[in-house]
Amino acid sequence: MKEVTTMGKLKPMGKLNGNITILVSGDYVELEINEDNSGCRFVTMRIDPVDFCKLLGRQAHVPCTFEVPDLSIIGMYEVMTDIEFPIPVDSSYQPKRKEIATETVKKLPRVVEDGWHPSTYFGSKGSFFSKEVDGKTVYYARTNMSKWVDLETAKKFNEMEGYNVHALNRVRY
């Protein structure tokens, strides 16, 4: 497990909604806490079964280990959209077309300047295609990209065509 130290201050998140799962095996009991908006696992805790029984018996300060992911997306909303972009060569059957598409999508101004995170999965049937542009065949790649935004920005994206905001349908305004 990675050791983490915090140099800055964590800002208060306020009240969050989520769910908890308790998984029991012979060696340990694992508790997972997920946050609803982002759909992310907030914390994963492992505890010895004997110590878990102590907790059920209302003993306090029982030792455990836990793992916390990147907290910057907790309480945020994931916005996704598709992106199509030209690739520099005829890569319809070229073995390196996935590498070419991956490098190209990472350099697109929309991705770099606006903070989108493109998927580098180009394994579906529609990932590569061609179009006729000004009488020439231009080869394209297609994938999706996402970014994490606050509630107000998520509402704006939700009203725009071509964007999918995850978990927004569960929010009570």
- Overall, the morphology is elongated
Unreliable stretches: 1-9
Q: Count of DSSP E strands?
A: 9
Radius of gyration: 22 Å
Total helical elements: 4
Strand-and-helix sequence, N→C? EEEHEEHHEEEHE
Helix content: 10-25%
Average pLDDT, rounded to a whole number, is: 82
Task: Please report which band the strand proportion falls in: under 5%, 5-15%, 15-25%, 25-35%, 35-45% or over 45%.
Answer: 25-35%
Describe the structure in your own words.
The chain starts with 17 loop residues before the first strand and ends in an 8-residue tail after the last strand. The strands form two sheets. Strands 5, 6, 7, 8 and 9 form a five-stranded antiparallel sheet that branches. The longest helix has 10 residues, at 97-106. It has helices spanning 49-56, 97-106, 109-114, 151-159; strands at 18-24, 29-35, 41-47, 65-67, 77-86, 117-118, 128-133, 136-149, 163-165. It is elongated, with a radius of gyration of 22 Å. The protein folds into two domains: 18-73; 77-170, no CATH class. A hairpin with a 5-residue loop joins strand 2 and strand 3 (41-47). With 173 residues, the chain is of the alpha+beta class.
SSE layout:
Layout: E1 18-24, E2 29-35, E3 41-47, H1 49-56, E4 65-67, E5 77-86, H2 97-106, H3 109-114, E6 117-118, E7 128-133, E8 136-149, H4 151-159, E9 163-165
Antiparallel strand pairs: 1-2, 2-3, 3-4, 5-8, 5-9, 6-8, 7-8
